[in-house]
Amino acid sequence: MKPLIFAFLMLMTVPVLAGPFADANVAAGQRLVEKNCISCHASSYGGDGSAIYTREYRKVKTSKGLLAQVRNCNTMLGLKWFEDEELNVAAYLNNTYYKFSE
């Protein structure tokens, strides 16, 4: 039974590992978003701030655009994230909201 559960769990992680941010750490990205992004987005868009990602006329249209926007926020807010942290945030946002495959 344990090998079956392990195999199932491995298969469930494939979509997370595939795509434009395959080498990123989604959980680390989530922590960075929760710590640095939500309060600003909530003040601009209300609620939990997620409307910035789901609005009809959102700026981000591609995975490259998503990474560029994360880098822009990093620079504008002076967060001083390293490149891997930007990738982690982009991966989390992609997994949670955007679902870009390339």
Q: What is the overall shape?
A: globular
The CATH architecture designation is Orthogonal Bundle
Question: Rg from C-alpha positions?
Answer: 15 Å
**How many angstroms separate the termini?**
35 Å
Number of strands: 0
Average of pLDDT: 87
CATH domain fold name:
Cytochrome Bc1 Complex, Chain D, domain 2
| SSE pattern, N- to C-terminal | HHHHHH
Identify low-pLDDT runs: none
Query: What is the CATH class?
Result: Mainly Alpha
Strands, helices and their partners?
Layout: H1 2-17, H2 26-36, H3 38-45, H4 51-54, H5 63-77, H6 83-98
Helix pairs in contact: 2-6, 5-6
For this entry, give a set of tags:
69% helix; mainly alpha; Cytochrome Bc1 Complex, Chain D, domain 2
Protein described:
With 102 residues, the chain is mainly α. The chain has one domain (2-98): Cytochrome Bc1 Complex, Chain D, domain 2 (Orthogonal Bundle), CATH 1.10.760. It is 69% helix and 0% strand. It starts with a helix and ends with a helix.
